Amino acid sequence: MKVSASQPFQIIYSLFQHEYLGYLFESYIVHLDDSGKLTYQHQNISSKNAREFSKGLDDRDFELIKLVDAMHQDAVARKFAGKPIKPEEFFPKIFDKKKGNEAVQEMIQMHVEARRAEIMELLKGKMLFETGNDGEPTHRKIEVMESKASIQFHFMRSDDNTNYFPTIFYEGKKLELPNPTAYLVCKDPAWMVMNGKLYGFEKHVDGKKLLPFLSKKFVVIPKNLEETYYNRFIAPLIASFDDIEAKGFDIIKTEYDPRPLLTISELPSVQGGDTLFDSKPGDDRSDESGKIVFDLSFKYGKHKFQGRNRVPVSVTIEKHDSDYVFHRVMRKPEAEKNFLNTLQKLGLPMKDFNVAIAKSEAFSWLNENRVNLLNLGFEVSQPQGNDKKYFVGKAVIEVEVKENIDWFDIHARIRFGEYEIPFKELRKLILKKKVEFKLPNGEIAIIPEAWLTRYADLFALSETEGNKEKPVLRKHHLNLVKELEDGNLAKVHISEKLRSLGSFSGVGSYDLPEGFVGELRPYQKAGYNWLRFLNEFRLGGCLADDMGLGKTVQTLALLQAEKEAGRGTSLLIMPTSLIYNWEMEAARFTPELKVLNYTGTSRNKNIKRFEKYDVVLTSYGITRLDSELFKDFYFNYVILDESQVIKNPSSIIAKAVRELKSRYKLVLTGTPLENTTMDLWSQISFINPGMLGSQTYFRQEYQVPIEKKGDETKSKKLNAIIKPFVLRRHKSQVATELPEKVENIQYSVMTPEQEKRYEEVKSYYRGKILDLIDKEGMGNSRFMILEGLTKLRQLANHPKMIEPSYSGDSGKLEDIIHMLENAMAEGHKVLVFSQFVKHLTLVSQYLKSNKIDFAYLDGSSIDRKEQVERFNKDAKVKAFLISIKAGGLGLNLTEADYVFILDPWWNPAVEAQAVDRAHRIGQKKKVFTYKFITRNSVEEKILKLQEKKLKLTRDLITTEESVMKQLTREDIEQMLA
């Protein structure tokens, strides 16, 4: 019969016994009469309709209803059958005494018992009844007692047997057992109904231990079962209850302070390790890749507790003849927690009294904290009976570095306990990524993680010398030696003069050679001193001054000094376009140098004649072609000008120059790093082989952390390593006499027809590119991206560049012509740079049609020298149109004081090279630079990217890849917006 929520009602809970599930509950809404008493009008309440009666329910009622629903036979059958099924079909089959499923029975009982225990704790203050045989939910009321009952167990041992029984007290009054009204509603923990009252217990009481006494006064344990019963039943009971009354045997309560025991064991895997000593065939190979488990336990006298085991008490049985003594020991959780905290403070990442960490890290920690652990009372042990025993003693590494003529000698003493290990053998293991090996006594030694970290560079970059494979470091690893000394990782013996290489100010002054004509500015003289210093220690160098600061003249001074010292022939390799400039500069500053121009198809390939010359000038192209010839000649110096040409270490030219033989090596560049840090590796590895390790080592140790992860620590470390061997001065630092350079952005507006064409192409490529990125990813879309952006850049310049039949105008070209005419009219000379030859052609067509003289240079020009001289010497030639790639290097055009950049280039360093053709030593006038940008075009977006890249390239080492490689989908979307 339904109950109205608008009428007075009361929620009640009714207890009944299920054939298979034990005691269950039902929740009901019962109508109240006018006097507030329960009536027979009632209905079930569940989670489905509970909200309807919410005004008469509290939070506990909602929780109880949910738990009652979960215990309902329909819910249990559905949960464990995995599908809807009738309870009358499911339970008889599962609980069949012969064919039933005992495993499922146990899971069902655990599920129901857990929810039953939750319900018991929530019933206080609620109305509870027993269900009648007729199904009446309010048949008999059960009073839920407010407080908990206590229980005490009694044991009486005689010569024949042992009797035991419990006594139960509620608020000081004894509850008599046995009692025919008593039954257990819940067994884990025990909840008992007696005389219409529901009792819980203060301590967790196992209902199975209480159940026999509901129907009998005591339990008798026969003498022949005594020992078994004492171990299985009485000992756990004494552990759970500290007030047991015993006659006939003793219960001794002992108090101990815990002693911490740190046990190490292995989480095994399948790989093996190496041995440094003699091993027999069939020896078990050590496991490299497993982890070490630290487990913290505690000893209380003879009792041992696992830290992660929450059992608070331990009971052991001692038997003397026929007498029994039970020893009860209670743990001290606060003291145990303090020991755990101590390990954490020592750096062990242990949380729940155990932790598994990598082997090298584990034994590094043990090695560093061995003494601390002993002083703090920790015992370190390994499981007994384990075939594999680890060395847990003291491991020591002592390193001494001494300066030799050509290298640093490494003297290292490495000991694991009483055993000394050769440095070269340990190095071999580490380079094979092995961290463990077997000692002569069979113990497994682990190379500490701290060694792998602190001495990583020493192991990776050291070499062996001679038949005895003596460990050495090359001189260019000076910074590593200093790091070892500064970190107190090695005793270092090196000369003060060599130490001074780390700070440029410590380099002494060297006399200029007598045959040098002219003067060096102070910073140029300092550069010459630095080159001579490196020469003295047979170290390679990278002269990376800004363009226009005189790298050529500093190098010529060095080569003249080498000539006067009788050192032999040097090879100078450069782009073809710079050969003429080097010849002219050598004739001017070092006229005594015998210089050979080894270029052209008619060159004499008899390299023996090189001996007659002081300097051989050649190009990268010739070097690549004649590399087999060059390999047979031992040069004094091999010098690379514009050495970024070998930035790709896998290129043919990079491989070719690395095979050249010489006493010294030097590279010259204004842009040592254009795109990635690997550019730097290739050039540094040429001048000082091995300085930055192998290509693989460098990629893992520096390139990936710097470029992919933005690791500033690695970037600073790399800078520190190369700093003594790279000299880079900016104009702002040293050439204060240079006139000011004024940079301007000239914005242009597209003509309506030009803008229409631009938007059409942009719309086409936007959809195509973004779809391709979504399908194939950025990496597989770069060709399409470059194609689309290039076409848009050309349209921003002039639509005629991609559509020859276009007859309209271009806003940018109109601005360029206007500003060019004004500059020339005022007597200025202008350099006009563009990436696109087609763009230069459009400008040249205008100049020709207006009979204006100009010089012109692109990649196909064969009269480079003549064009430069025309511009520099002919007053009528006011404009010089130059392809930015063909004329960005090696030209001295200080006659110009205006520079026009017609279209922005991805890499701002390339534009800087172009501007420096005019803004360099020898310039007397202020240089004005104009960069032409078309508004509302992709050029504006590129300009923003340039500003970001320019910030990064001000330092020697960038932490970004090239702009193209770094473009994201968001960048593309914004560019094409």
Number of strands: 43
Global mean pLDDT: 85
Query: Could you name the CATH homologous superfamily of the largest domain?
Result: P-loop containing nucleotide triphosphate hydrolases
Structural class: alpha/beta
**CATH-derived architecture of the largest domain:** 3-Layer(aba) Sandwich
Instruction: List the strand order in the largest sheet.
Output: 3-2-1-4-5-11-10-9
Strand proportion:
15-25%
Net shape: elongated
Helical proportion, percent range: 25-40%
Distance between the termini: 70 Å
Which fold does the CATH topology of the largest domain refer to? Answer: Rossmann fold
Top CATH class of the largest domain:
Alpha Beta
Low-confidence residue ranges: 270-287, 949-961
Largest sheet features:
8 strands, mixed
The total tally of domains equals: 5
Question: How many helical stretches?
Answer: 32
Give a short summary of the structure.
By secondary structure, the chain is α/β, with parallel strands linked by helices.
Topology readout:
Elements: E1 9-18, E2 22-32, E3 38-44, H1 59-71, H2 73-81, H3 87-94, H4 102-122, E4 128-130, E5 140-144, E6 150-157, E7 161-170, E8 173-175, E9 183-187, E10 190-194, E11 197-199, H5 207-210, E12 219-222, H6 226-240, E13 245-247, E14 250-254, E15 259-267, E16 274-275, E17 291-300, E18 303-306, E19 313-320, E20 323-330, H7 333-345, E21 354-358, H8 359-375, E22 379-381, E23 395-403, E24 407-416, E25 419-421, H9 423-431, E26 436-438, E27 444-446, H10 449-454, H11 456-461, E28 463-465, E29 470-474, H12 478-486, E30 491-493, H13 496-499, H14 522-536, E31 541-543, H15 551-564, E32 570-574, H16 579-589, E33 595-597, E34 615-619, H17 620-625, H18 627-630, E35 634-641, H19 652-658, E36 661-668, H20 677-687, H21 695-709, H22 712-722, E37 726-727, H23 731-734, E38 741-748, H24 752-776, H25 782-797, H26 811-825, E39 830-834, H27 837-849, E40 854-857, H28 864-873, E41 879-883, E42 898-901, H29 908-915, E43 927-934, H30 938-953, H31 963-966, H32 969-975
Parallel strand pairs: 1-4, 5-11, 6-13, 14-20, 15-22, 16-26, 23-30, 31-36, 31-37, 32-34, 32-35, 33-34, 35-36, 38-43, 39-41, 39-42, 40-41, 42-43
Antiparallel strand pairs: 1-2, 2-3, 4-5, 6-7, 7-8, 7-12, 9-10, 10-11, 15-17, 17-18, 17-21, 19-20, 23-24, 24-25, 24-29, 26-27, 28-29
Helix pairs in contact: 1-4, 14-15, 15-16, 21-22, 24-25
